[in-house]
Design goal:
This protein has about 290 residues and is an alpha/beta fold. It has 3 domains: about 80 residues, Winged helix-like DNA-binding domain superfamily/Winged helix DNA-binding domain (Arc Repressor Mutant, subunit A), CATH 1.10.10.10; about 100 residues, 3-Layer(aba) Sandwich (D-Maltodextrin-Binding Protein, domain 2), CATH 3.40.190.10; about 100 residues, 3-Layer(aba) Sandwich (D-Maltodextrin-Binding Protein, domain 2). The strands form 2 sheets. Strands 4-3-5-10-6-9-7-8 form an 8-stranded mixed beta sheet, with helices on both faces. A two-stranded antiparallel ribbon has the order 1-2. Strand 7, helix 7 and strand 8 form a beta-alpha-beta unit. Helix 1 packs across helix 2 and helix 1 crosses helix 3.
């Protein structure tokens, strides 16, 4: 396979425009088109289909683009690392985080990052499945999530436990609650994470054990939303106290009890790369226990 042809294909696939790509690469449109056709002949199937003036990837083209992306992105990383090495002054760390995570916890991670000299960061909030896509396509360097990811045959993930936060019963001040057996907990209004989450599963087991009959008035998988709900509704919540750190400090909310053996886990997820971002490695080292 001619890697010059693959490179030209990758550039066209990325832009979606033959003419613009030809101008950027300083070659004629006919020469660029000819080299892509040679690549298609080598593969034995078309990589693009034309719709008007647009070039759309075929299924084979999409697969080829993904592979080319990895090849040339890793090549760019190789050049950057071997050329600049430790002398590179400004390091950009691209961080993705699950949109449902506590902003206060993310702030703790960022505060560690900001202690590193010459480091800058870009922060992107997205759904959990998007994090893995962005990692696999090298669009972010590290993902922060509250769900662990295991390795598979298709992709080797590296999942590092950053922190484990205890879960507390939290609410507005004034509840006469002193233990999990307290009658006040038998019938209370609650705002909770949805049923498919570890915190909710643990809460439901405790409800059965202590014969609580909770009235669940709201569910949210977003910790920021749970923070607002418990603050404004007067209901109780089962959440990590880092989520409502400011409200606890100001006295708007009160931490009543810790739920036994129930924790929220926070992970940093990376994908194995031949030339990983050294600033990310340095950041994660700060969380070694």
């Amino acid at each position: 396979m001619n890697y010059h042809h693959l490179y030209y294909f990758w550039k066209v696939a990325d832009s979606g425009h033959l003419t613009k790509t030809a101008e950027t690469l300083h070659i004629s449109q006919s020469a660029l088109s000819s080299q892509i056709k040679q690549l298609e002949q080598w593969f034995g199937q078309p990589l693009f289909e034309r719709r008007g003036r647009k070039l759309l990837l075929t299924q084979a083209g999409y697969i080829a683009k993904q592979t080319a992306e990895r090849i040339f992105k890793e090549g760019e990383q190789l050049v950057e690392q071997l050329k600049n090495g430790a002398s590179s002054k400004d390091t950009v760390i691209r961080i993705g985080h699950a949109s449902t995570m506590s902003r206060n916890f993310i702030e703790q991670v960022i505060s560690e990052l900001m202690k590193q000299p010459h480091a800058r960061y870009r922060l992107h909030s997205m759904a959990h499945h998007q994090l893995l896509t962005e990692l696999s396509e090298y669009r972010i360097d590290v993902a922060l999530a509250n769900t662990e990811v295991t390795s598979s045959d298709q992709q080797i993930w590296q999942s590092k436990l950053l922190a484990r936060q205890a879960i507390y019963i939290v609410g507005v001040p004034g509840y006469p609650i002193s233990s999990l057996q307290d009658p006040q907990l038998k019938r209370q209004q609650w705002v909770l994470p949805p049923e498919n989450t570890p915190i909710r599963g643990a809460f439901d087991m405790l409800s059965t054990e202590y014969q609580w009959r909770p009235e669940i008035i709201a569910e949210a998988d977003d910790m920021a939303m749970l923070r607002l709900l418990v603050r404004d509704s007067g209901a109780l919540a089962a959440i990590p106290d880092v989520v409502v750190r400011d409200e606890l400090q100001s006295g708007l909310l009160q931490r009543y009890l810790q739920l036994p053996n129930v924790y929220e886990q926070f992970y940093a997820i990376t994908v194995k790369q031949p030339f990983p971002n050294t600033a990310v490695s340095a950041l994660l080292q700060r969380f070694n226990r």
